[in-house]
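Researcher: Structure prediction, please.
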Amino acid sequence: MLTDIEIAQQAKMLKITEIAGKLGISEDEIEPYGHYKAKISQSCINRMSTKPDGKLILVTAINPTPAGEGKTTTSIGLSEGMHRIGKNSVLALREPSLGPVFGVKGGAAGGGYSQVVPMEDINLHFTGDMHAITSANNLLCAIIDNHLQQGNELGIDPRMIQTDRCLDMNDRALRNCVVGMGTRVDGVPRQDHFRITVATEIMAILCLADDLKDLKKRLGNILVAYTYDGKPVFARDLNAVGAMASLLKDAINPNLVQTLENNPAIIHGGPFANIAHGCNSVRATKLALKLGDYCITEAGFGSDLGAEKFFDIKCRFAGLKPDCVVLVATIRALKYNGGVPKAELGSENLDALKKGIVNLGTHIENMCKFGVPVVVAINHFGTDTDAEIEYVTDFCKEKGVEVSFSDVFAKGGEGGIDLAQKVCAVIDKGTAAFKPLYDEKLSVKEKVETLAREIYRADGVIYTAQAEKALAKIQEVGITDVPICVAKTQYSLSDDPAKLGKPTDFKITVRDMKLSSGAGFIVVYTGDIMTMPGLPKKPAAYSIDVDNDGNISGLF
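Model: Predicted structure follows.
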C-alpha cells in the first residue's frame, strides 16, 4: 500500500495556470510560486465581487481521537465527489502549521486518494504566509522592547505587555523566557513568552480581514500593553502598523492549488481552533463562494471548537450564511469514545459503539442549534462491520439526519459520490436558517455561560481569581460587545481531555482571559490549554527525511 506522500508524488498535476483557467481566472490575475501553486490577486477578487454567491458547506467533526476522523480528507473527497456528479465546487481550506507537521498530528493536506497537492509544499513552507505572519508579530514585539529601551515615552509597564513573540514550531522551552539580558544596550530585562504562530492574534486578524485597509485597521487595534497608570497601549500608538502591513501585503492574498483529481482548492490561513478561531481566511471563503456553485470549507478540531467559532465569530464578522454542515466521524472513533483501547478498535464491539455514539449525538444536536441542516459523514474503514454500520444508520435516522459512509481515502472522488449527492439534496430543500448562538452584546460571563451550557453541556462555570482580574481589566478598556473565543481541549466536550463521550456533572473552569481587540474577540482560557505546544517523545520529525535528489519521505 502506498503512503500518502507516495500517492501525492505520483500525482499528474496540471500547471497552476490551467487550474486558474478552470475558475475563469486569467494568468494576469495570479502570481505563480513555481508551476503548481499561486497567489490570487486583489484585482481578481475585485472582479469576482459582483458575481452571486454559491452555497456554503462547513465540514466539522466529533471530538478528535487517536483513531482519527479525517475531516480534511472528507472535505477534499466531498469536493471531488461534487465534481463527479457535475457540480462546480471550490475548496477553501486552512494552511498546515509546521508545529503539528513535525510534532504528533502530521500534515493537513488530506490523505490517501483524497489530497491537495503539491503535498510537500503545502505542508512545509508553501508560499511563505506563516513566515510573514511570524515576522510581523515579532517585529511588533521588537518595536515594543525598543520603545522601552529608547526612553519609554508612553510609560509602558514591562510587566503588563500583552503581546508574545512567536515561532511556527512546537518548542516548549520557549513558553517562558527572559529577554533583555546582558549590558544596558541589550534592552530592558523582563519576562517574555513565545506562542506558536498559528495561535497569534495576527494570524486571527489575517484570516478575518476583508482587505489591506481592514487589515491595517485591525493591526492598529491590537492591545499590546498597559501603562504604569493602567491605560491601554495599542499597536497604532507605537507607529508599528505600516511596517507590519508591508510584511503581510502578499500573505493576505489567498493561495491556489489543486486536488489529486485536478480540481481547484484555495488554501489560506491556519489559526488553531483551540486557541484562535480555527477557520481559513474570510477572503478565501468569500472568493470560493464567487468562483463555484458550492464552497466547501472546514473548521478545526471538533464542532464544539472550530464549528462554533466559525458560526459565532467568522460568520458573524463576514456576514456568511452556511447552507449545510457535514459532521465527520468514524466507527472506530465512536468505539474509542465508548472505552475501547486504540489497539482493539478493529474488532466489532456494539456495546462500546452504543456508549460512544452519544458524542456524535451531542455534536448533531449542537449544530442544529445554529439553524443549519446536518449530514453525517462516516469515514469508512474495512474493519467496520455490517452490524456496526446498521446501528449508526439507525441512530442517525432517529436523530433526523442523513448519513453517508464515504470511502474517499481509498477511492477519491468516486468514494465521495454518495456524500455529495446527499449534501446537495439537503441543500436543495432550502431549510437552512442560520443564526449565531448568542448576542455579542450580552455580558462576557453570559456569553461564556451560554457556550458552557449549550455546547459543552456543563452545569456552570468557575472563574479563577486571575480570570476575574483579567475580565475587570477588559471591562476597563471598554471592549466587551464582541464574540468570545474559548480556548479549550479538543479531546472532550468538557475542559478535561480524559472525559470522553458526553460528560455529565462537571463545570468549566476559566483560568484567564485576553482581549484580542485587533481580531475583535475575547479569548477565554479554560483548563490547561497552552499557546505553545510541545513535541511528543517520538515526534513525526524523526521519520521525515530528504534524499540526495531532494525527494522528501516520511511526511504524512
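Model: The CA atoms of residues 359 and 501 lie 5 Å apart.
Researcher: Thanks, that helps.
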